[in-house]
Amino acid sequence: MMPFNWEGLPLEVRIKVASLLDARERLPLQLTSKSNYNLVSYCPIHLDSLTIKPFYRPVFCHAIFAQIACFKTPQNKEYQQEHLFEIENAPQQLLKHSKNWIKKLDLFMLSDLETFLRDLLAMIKKEKEENNKRIQFRVKEVEVSGMYQWEFVTEFLQYFDTNVLECIKLRFCQMPRDALTGLLAVEKLRRVPVALRMNVVLAEYAVEMIKNFRAIPRPDHTFFSLSSSEPLNPEIKENIFDLLDLSQSSRKSICRLRKCSKFHLNLVDSCPVFLKYVCIKPVVNGNQVHLTIGEESSSFGYLCDKNCDLDTAIQDFLLIFKHRKSKVEHLFICNYHHRTYTEGINDIITEILSGISSKFPGDFKLKIKKLKFQNYTKIDEIKFSNLFKKLDSSTFTFLSLHNFSIHTHELFEEIMKSKQWKSLKSVEISDWARIPIGWFLRTDNFDLMYKSLSGKDLWRCIQKYLFKPFPLLTFFRISTYEVLPLAEIFAQFDVPAKNEPLETTYVNNLYKHTQRFELPWSKEYLFVVRIGLRVIKGVVCRKTDLLDDFDAMDDL
Amino acid sequence: MSVENAPVVDVDEAAIPVEKKMYYRFESNDKKEFRVSELAIQQSETLNRLVEAMGYTSEDVENKPAIAIENIDGKTLKLVFQWCEHHKGEAIPVDDGSVPKIVEIPEFDAKLMDIDNGLLFKLIWAADYLNIVQLLNVSCKKVANMAQGKTPAQLRRVYLLPSDEEDEAAKRAAQEAQDPRAREVEEEFEERKRQGGNSFF
Fold it and tell me: Dihedrals φ, ψ of A282, to 5°?
C-alpha cells in the first residue's frame, strides 16, 4: 500500500482522524512519536468508566492513587487501563478528563477526599482566572464516596454539564443536614436525579429528608437510602409512611426491593420483583447464612442483610417468588467454609425444598435464569436433583457447578430426563467429569473438564457446530488432565488439518493448532477451533472479527 | 476548454427544485471545467458563500469566466463535485464536540474513495479547504480505518510518520532555513568548542 502523508494534513484534520479512533487504536498512534502522542492526548475520548481511588501499598499507603479508565471497542469488548500517580497529582489527572465524555465517574477517596476536592476546585478556578477556561465535566453518572468529608462536594458538582449528567450518587457515612439541604437546593442540579446513601442517621433525619424531597420537585429515579445503627421503632416507621402520604400501590412499589424482609410484610404483597443477583452463602461460624441481593459482583447489594439463621434467610429468599412473575437472573449458592461447615450447601438446599413445600404447595417453580453452585464437599445428589426440578424450565438457561464433586452417573441420568435440562443453553462444570461427553452435546455452550478425551469424542464436539445454525459466539471449551491427542483429532477431520493462527505476532507454545472450519449454514461466520496442549476451544466467530470474537468469552 | 466541452457531473434532475435549477461553472488549477448544481454547492460552505457573494444570474454563469479554484486539481475536484451532487440537499452535520464520533461510510462514498492514498490525501485537503463537513468526516474515517489493528511500526509505514529523531532534525532544518544567522552562530560555537573554549560568550 502506498504510504499516506499524515504529516502533510492540516492539524485540525489530524485531530479529527485521531478522534475517530477508539481508545485501543489510539495507543499505537501515540507511540509513534512525541508529536503524535501530544496530538492524540489532545483528542477527547469516550470512557465507559473512570475510577479514581486509593491504591494501597505497604510503604506509601497514602501516597498512591490509581486511575482506572475503562472503554469499549466497537466490537463491544471491554478494556481497562490503569495508571498510578501520587495523591497531589490526582486533581490534575481528573482535570485532564474534562474534555472527555465519561459514562461513569467514580471517586472513592476515603479521608483524602477533602484535600483532593479542595485542590481540584482551586485548579478549576485558576484555569478560569488565568486562561479564561470554563471547566465542565461531561459525565453521565457520578458517584462520590467518602468517609467524612462533604464540604466541597456541592461546589464540585456544579462543574458538571447538567445536559449530560443523568445521575448523582453520594455515599457518605455522615452528612450534616445543612450540607445536604444545601446540595439538594442547588438550582442547577435540580433536574438531575440524586441517589443518596448514608449510614448512622437518626430517624428524624429521615423525616426531614422526606419533607425536603416532597417540597422540591425532582426528576424520576431520585431516591435516598438511609440506614441507621439503631433499629427504627414501629412508631417512627409509621410516621415516615404517613408523611409519604402514598397510595397503597405506591407503597408496594417503594418496598419492592425490601420484599425479602419479613419485618415489612405488611407493606409488601403482590408486586413482582426482577432481581439481577442473589447470593446465599454460609458464614464462618456455622449455622448462619448471608443473603445478598443486588448487582452481580458488587459488595453493595440493595439488600445486604446481617448474617441470620438459615431458616430466616431462606424464608426471605423464597419471599422473592411470592409473586408468580418474580424472577431472579442469577442465583449463586456457595460455601467457602466447607472445612468447618461441611453440610453448608446441602442444608441450604434442604431448607429451600422444605420452604417451597410449606409455602408454595403444588406445581410451584422457581424462576431463575442462571444457577451457579460452588461447593467443596460432597453434595446430596437426590436433594440437588429435586431442587433442579423445581426450576422453571422456560426461564432456566445456565448451570454452573464449581468444585462440585459429582460421584455418580445417577444424578445426571436423573436430571437429564427433566425439562429443565432440555431447556439449558449453557453448562459449565469445573470438576473432572466422569460422564460421557455426549451427554452435554445438546446444550449450545459447554465448558467442561475431563481427565482425558479421545479424538473421536473431541471431533463430535466440533462437528456439532458445523451442520446446524448457532448464534454468534456460541462456544465449547474442554480442559483435560492428559495431553490432547492431536494426531487422533486430525484423523477425524473431514477437511485437511491446516494451522491458521489468529494472531500473527503472538506466539505461545501452548497453542498447537488453530483450524478454521467453513460453515455450510453461514457465509458470515466461521467455526474456529484452537487446540492447546490440554485445552480445546471452539467459537462461532464472524469472518471479519475472528480474534475479537474468539476471545470474547475469555482467553484459551 | 469551452463551456460545451466541460465535463458535466451526473445530476438527478428530479431532485432539483425548478426555481433553483442553476449550474455554476468552476475551473480547477489544471484548467478543467465543471458544471455543478446550486443545490450541490450548498454542501461546501466555502463555495456557497462565494457564489452568494458573486450574486450571479443564469446569464452571468454562462457568459462570465468559470470560477477558478486555484489550489485543487481537476482529478480531485471531479471527486469533490461527484460527492456534492450525490449528497445534495442532505443536512450538513454539526459538530457538537460529542464523543464517540460515529461516522458511517455510505456505499457510494466508499466507492468514491476507493482511490490511491495520494488522491485520498488531496481529497481530504480539498474537503477541508472547501469546508465540506460530511466529506471531511467520511474521508477522515477512511484514514482512521487505515490505522485499525496496526502496531506503531506498521503505522509509521502506513502514515509515513517520522520518528522523534527525524522530527527534531526536521525542526532544526526548518529553523536553520528560516534564519541563516542561526547556522553561522552554531558553526562558530562548534569551532570555539573545538578550540577548547568553555563558554561561548
Answer: -65, 150
User: Per the CB < 8 Å rule, is B99 touching A20?
Assistant: no
- The secondary structure of A33-59 as a DSSP string is -HHHHHHHHHS--EEEEEEEEE---SS
What is the Cα–Cα distance from A527 to A476, expressed in whole angstroms? Answer: 11
Residue A337 near residue A284 (C-beta atoms within 8 A):
yes
Q: Which residues pair with A531 in a beta bridge?
A: A513, A536
How far, in Å, are A28, A41, A79, B47, B113 from residue B155 at the CA level?
8, 17, 21, 35, 20
Mean pLDDT of A236-265: 52
| Interchain pair A6, B160: CB under 8 A | yes
Give residue A245's pLDDT: 53
Q: Report pLDDT digits (tens) over A168-224.
A: 887 766 667 677 777 777 777 777 777 666 655 555 666 676 776 667 666 665 666
Partner A contacted by B50 (CB < 8 A): no
Rounded to 5°, the CA angle A171-A172-A177 comes to: 115
Query: Which residue from A minimizes the CA distance to B119?
Result: A4
Q: Do A144 and A112 form a contact (C-beta atoms < 8 A)? A: no
Determine the Cα–Cα distance for residues A117 and A152; give it in Å rounded to an integer. Answer: 6
Q: Which of B95, B6, B99 is nearest to B45 (CA)?
A: B95
The rounded mean pLDDT for chain A is: 76
Pairing of strands A398-402, A301-304: unpaired
Q: What is the DSSP string of A408-446?
A: -HHHHHHHHTSHHHHH--EEEEEEE--S-GGGGTTSSEE
How far apart CA A82 and CA B50 sit, in angstroms, is 51
Asked if B12 has any chain A CB less than 8 Å from its own CB, the reply is: no
β partners of residue A309: A288
Angle at the Cα of B22 (from B18 to B24), degrees rounded to 5? 165
Question: Would the CB atoms of B128 and A1 count as touching at under 8 Å?
Answer: no
Spans of all domains in chain B: 13-145
CA-based angle A430:A433:A437, to the nearest 5?
115
The CATH code of domain B13-145 reads 3.30.710.10
**Taking a C-beta distance cutoff of 8 angstroms, is the pair A345, A373 a contact?**
yes
Q: Cα A502 to chain center, whole Å? A: 28
Element (H, E) at B135: helix B133-145
A21 → closest Cβ in B116, B121, B147: B147
Q: What is the pLDDT of residues A318-367, one digit of tens each?
A: 877 877 778 888 899 888 777 777 788 888 899 999 999 988 877 889 99
CA angle A88, A89, A94 (to 5 degrees): 125
ipTM of the complex: 0.75
Model pTM above 0.80: no
Predicted pLDDT of residue A299: 43
**DSSP letter, residue A490:** H
- On the question of a cis peptide bond just before residue B100, with omega within 30 degrees of 0, the verdict is yes
